[in-house]
Amino acid sequence: MADRQLRRAVFLDRDGTICEEVGYLNHISRLHIYPFAPAAIRRLNDAGFPVVVVTNQSGAGRGFFPESLIAEVHDRIRRELTVSGAHIDAFYACPHRSEDGCDCRKPRIGMLERAASEHSIALPGSWVVGDRQADVGLAHNAGARSIFVLTGYGRGEYEWHSREWPYPPDFVAEDLGAAVDTILSHEAGGRNANEPVHRPAMTPGDAR
Prior knowledge:
The protein is an alpha/beta fold and 208 residues long. The protein has a single domain (10-207), classed as HAD superfamily/HAD-like (Rossmann fold, 3-Layer(aba) Sandwich), CATH 3.40.50. The protein has helices at residues 37-46, 58-61, 67-83, 110-119, 133-142, 154-161, 176-188, and strands spanning 10-12, 51-56, 90-94, 127-130, 145-149, 171-173. It has a six-stranded parallel beta sheet with strand order 3-2-1-4-5-6, with helices on both faces. Helix 1 packs parallel to helix 7 (176-188). The radius of gyration is 16 Å and the shape is globular.
C-alpha cells in the first residue's frame, strides 16, 4: 500500500443514516432507504470520495437473522442507488456481539483498517457519518472527522445522552444530505486534510 497514493474516504453507518432505523433489520422487506440518501451519496461520488459503509449487525451473532441477510440487504442498497446514479465502493459489516471482543465492532476500528488496506484509504482526514455515539468513537479512534446525524437513533441519543459522551462529534447534521453539505463545504474551504476539527457540539436544546 505504501506504493499507492492514499485517498481520504467517507465512511457511512447504514441503519439510521442511509436507511430507516427499524431496530434489527431482520427481513429484506423492512429495508427503506431514506429519500435523500441516493443524491447525497452521488454528490460524494462526484466529489471523488470513496464511500464505504461500516455497520454493526450483531443481530446475526445473536441469531435474530442469518448472516446471509446482511449481504442481501447490501445488494439491494447497491441496486437502488444505481438507479439514482450513485454507488457505494465497499460494504463492511461486523456480525459480532459486544461481548465477543472482536476488533471490528464499532467503535473499534477493525473495519476501517481493513477498508484502508483494501482500498488505499488514509484514515486521518477521512470522515465518519452516523447516528450513534459508537460512530463518533470510531472516528475518534481512527483519527478521522465525525459527523453525527439526527436521523435514526440520532436525535434521541444526542438530546438525552450527549452530555455524558467522552468527546463530542466534530459536527452535527440533520441528516445525510446535510452531512454531505458539511463535508463538501469544509473541503472547499481548503482546510488541511490532517488538521483536527473540534467544533463544539450543539446543546441538546439546539438539536430540536
